[in-house]
Amino acid sequence: MVSSGCFKDVDFSIMVHPAPFDLAFYVSQALEKAEVVYKGKAAHAAAFPWEGRNALDAAVMAYNSISMLRQHMKPTWRVHGIISEGGVKPNIIPERAKLEFWVRTIKNKECAILKSKVNACFEAAAKATDCTVDIAWDPIPHAGVLTNSKLAYLYQKYAGQMGVVFPSREEQESIVDGSTDFGNVSMVVPGLHAEFCIDSSVPFHSHVFRVAAGTQYAHDQTIIAAKSLCFTAIEVLNDPALLKEMKEEFLQAVKDA
After folding, report:
1. Which of 40, 106, 166, 228 has its CA 20 to 30 A from that of 18?
2. What's the pTM?
3. Which helix (H) or strand (E) holds 57?
């Protein structure tokens, strides 16, 4: 939608998401996704192993290299991946192996740095095992969400009037979530990605969270969150000076992201 210009004439964008807590100052992580395919040469693993080039060895080496990279990663950096293909039979040297890896950082600029380090691990494993490698990074990475403070404080004000109690801004910003494509939206217009509590005892995206989402309490909290968004939007639309301040903050935040 961003690439298609859907937000070209939009002044700001606001949304809410159910959660185990209430917050307006949302922090997410920038995300880069890679699919990595190693290709070697099949051979009989018992009769002629020297004729083969083991693509699974390349995948394992890349995986282990990234694990060793972790001691040099910042505390807020995240890398996680799987070996999704690793051969077809134990007696055949694997001629193809596939990795899927996700790279995340809170700062958008740091994601490019970590991506480069991880990419070097992929390439080095290919050289070490005499395999070829095809590294395909997702052409549309997720940016970290830039929370507009003017929108966040407005949402907090209206939700607070309906009984919602928020932690301090510092406490809210200490909670680092996963990644979302709303981050890309927040890079083109001032944005708010608030979260509202439906059950403080259940984790995101779990079976128990699904059950909690169907309760009357969750329904009531959803109504409060929706009303808070509406009141936030109405105040901004009726205050040109506030909108101007929001856009000024947004432009600076994009430069610093």
Report:
1. 106
2. 0.88
3. helix 55-69
